[in-house]
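cache lookup: miss for this entity combination. No prior model stored, computing from scratch. Input as submitted by user K.M.:
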Amino acid sequence: MKILTKRAFALLILSVLLIIGLLVFTIKYINNASDWAQHPTNKHLFRNGQLQTTGKIYDRKGEILLQTVDGAQKYNNDATVRKAVMHAIGDSYGNVMTSAQVAFGEKLSGWDMVNGAYRFNAQRYKPGNDITLTLDSEVCVEAYKAMNRRKGTVGVYNYKTGEIICMVSTPTFDPENRPDVEGNPDRYEGVYINRLLSAAYTPGSVFKLITAEAAIDTIKDIDTRTYECAAEKLIDGNRITCPAAHGNMTFKQALAHSCNVTFAEITLEIGGATLQKYADKAGFNSSHKVNGISTSAGKVDVSNAKGGDLAWAGIGQYSNTANPLSFMTYVGAIGNDGIKVTPSIIKDSNVILSLLPDIVPEGDRIITQETAASLGAMMRNNTIEVYGEKNFKGLELCAKSGTAEVGGEKAPHAWFTGYMDRDDCPLAFVVVVENGGSGSRVAGSIAGKVLQKAVDRMSLD
Amino acid sequence: MVFAIESVKYYYGELVDLMEQAGAVIGIYLSNPLELSECYTFIVRWIFPVLAVLLFFRCTLPLLCDIGHNQIWGYLDTKNGYRIPLRHWENSIGRSRLSDIVINLPFISRSHAVLAYGENGWIVTDLGAKGGVEINGERLEKAGFVKSEDTVSFAGADFLFIPAEQGHESIELENKLSRIINSFGTVRYGKTFLMILIFQFLGGLQLYLASIGEGVSASIPMPFGLFMLAECIFYFFLSRFSRKHLELELLIFFLCGLSLFIVAAVYPSYLLKQSIAIILGMIVYTVIQIIIKDLGRGRKLKYILVFCALVLILLNLTIGESRFGAKNWINLGFITFQPMEFVKVAFVLAGTATLDKLLTARNLTAFIGFSGICIGALIIMRDLGTSVIFFTAFLVIAFMRSGDIRTIALISSGAALGAFAVVTFLPYVASRFQAWGNVWEYTDTIGYQQTRTMIAAASGGLLGVGGGKGYLVGIPAADTDLVFGMLCEEWGLIIALTAVLSIIFMSFLVLFLMKGCKSSFYAISACGAASIYIIQTALNVLGSLDILPLTGVTLPFLSNGGSSMVVCWALLAFIKAADERQRPAGEDADEINETEEQADWDEERAGSLR
């Protein structure tokens, strides 16, 4: 019988294989069961393809943005609010991958590993599953209106606490009256993409902030130098141009007037390797996590660029791309003495807690304090000298505009980004209008309106 | 410091949240009218997994204890007074380390002879050894009977043969591990059985309450009652008339109960049929056990069943009906069944052989021929899942028979080529392979069943949503191919895994029993049966979860289906037959005639010693 006992190992192999299979399943279950359960065909959690949320989504002022009433999803009562926060909340069919409905679907659905989709007494609503967002729906509405049907994005966040106050992406639609998206590909181009989190645009002149930061750190006598701009300059056969000859000017003035020729020279002096280091530190080539939602990464690759390519890269063209949220975080860090605070979208909703003193979230220092201060002063100067203080009354605005050439016959992307140097309203912002034209004029006016609204609303907090 | 404040803040906040919510939750729960069924589920869904896990351990651990595992059927005495015990009905003798009785003398062959107990007494068979075998000085041609106190000599080494009349004496083999495991031998099976009844009663009630209002609840209590009554009778019968351990049957009771839970949720009207199939299974199980208790009858049964199997295959090929793409049903007007299920029993028996045959005739032609017929017929019927089961069982049995890894490898590679050809040329098989591993890309076409199974499994969580409250029931074959998903969704991952582990346990039990098997007939048939269970479980469970391609085979003891249920019980008889152990006697102390029986028992043992 010993011989058979030995030969029976074939059965042992089969059994062990089955056990391995079960282990594979168990591991897959632990990792993926939440995703499996969130599939729209799951009748426990979805009806007609709509998530039967067990919690409500509120904005920071307690406005209900999404709830489930009698088995159907109900968004805010105001159609404009619905459109303005559509990308933050998501549509009913999970098309916006970065939306709260998708990203926080597990919490909203009430699914958990132990109980699965079980609900006592068919009860769907669980207060514990409510989510309060940091968004202010009225600021979002203001931004949506200011965009005025143009494509692009507006983001505003508190650079001290990280709370995102405004997150608007256009084109958008009303999730309660879903239009024919497929039938109008032009009007609804990329409508399911939240441009603040998931887009990557050519940055244009706003990128000069990073070049400027590198210059302050590496070129000792930068403040005392003067540069000369004759409207154009040839570098290795590549022509760098300015709209007009800026003449003689200081570094500070060059940033205010966004002089391409001067910044091309500075870039060449700094060199590709150094610029790459500063771009990486500023958050390019890596993505952020906003409460677990991954943002797209911008891209800067100049370590091997030389001559004309490097010069173009230093003024935000070449192959550079920037993610709006990531850039907003960078300018927020300038406002916050060089410390970057990661943006968040979920607000701690507890009443008692808000009475306790706020503990500032830990951040990363990405800019030295001195450099941040001088960069900030230059950005403040931009507003006073070029963008016009009267357009941004009382905002203590520090900003930089960008007009990013996108090639072809298309109008350039308009960028405007910066922060408010006010302790009571520590807000950083970014505005991008696709093919919008002049950065400071088009995007700047949107930023002005939205920030004024945000300041009004903050005074109510 | 900051961290400390942060965490205090966090936990304080959580606490406040919890208290705020508690009030709201109670209010909200009471805003819907409370249903009895809801309240019931709310409580019992926590009880089921606990009971199931307890049952699993109470059923499996006692079966692994060593007590009564080493019976002795006779002795070979050497001249210098040394006694070699015969622990099996079939004992191989030789110089090889793998012989049951190792005689380490240079003139003994590696495999010298087999000393086996048959219908007419003990027979010694010469395995063609150079030195030969002599009985009382007479050289054996091939095989010959040995009687008590005969002198058997292997190549000149003399032994005095002494059979134990009743063959009951156990040697305590104890080491630390077995002592720990043996302590589980005292787990009271009566209590285990009671727990099973409670589990099934609570589960049946859950399904009954859940089905109120659907117009089908009336068909639930009767079959459950019938099944539980049958269990009680069978249990009574076993505890009175069988001296073996009962835990294996109890474990199967547990699985059969789960299968009724499934059927009650999917097709309540089939519940009675399933209960009857289980009862039939119990009867078949008992009958087969009685028949194969005697090796001679077992051998006859083998030929009869193989003949019946050939007839069934022929019938299937001629008058078979198609369902779900495979032509594997026979409709006799009053009953429909799957003949290939029954062929499994014959198949396992066909592979058996006693040790003397196994070691003398290494010829597998008949078995290979029969396997070829079965697998060929299955391919014609387009029942590829079942053909994989047969083929894998064939490999296991053929290897046990021949021990020849090269031949097996050759056959496997041939089969792999054949399978490749089949997969390439049959479009519907190819589509299953296309879906394999990518089911989430085909959620509404070829990955439909698998994705729904995974969604259901995830929806159940660890505890399940409650019997009769799942949505997988609406998916085709939920009660057969996707049974694991059903279990996960309605009864929770813990119970589903426990059920599958119960099946896997049977194969480990067989491996454990192997060394104490009386005859290779039992060893091979038990291994064959266990390998059928295992491969079927793997194809069913892992297939529905997209870890293997979905092939559409049943899960032993759990799927809805009469043929499958009866055959699973029949196969179980082979596993049970391999278990020779007596259960610890102390259990039945409360029975009146116990002391009397015990006295008989002691006398018997004394007799065997004499």
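stored under new cache key. The first strand of chain A starts at residue 46 and ends at 47.
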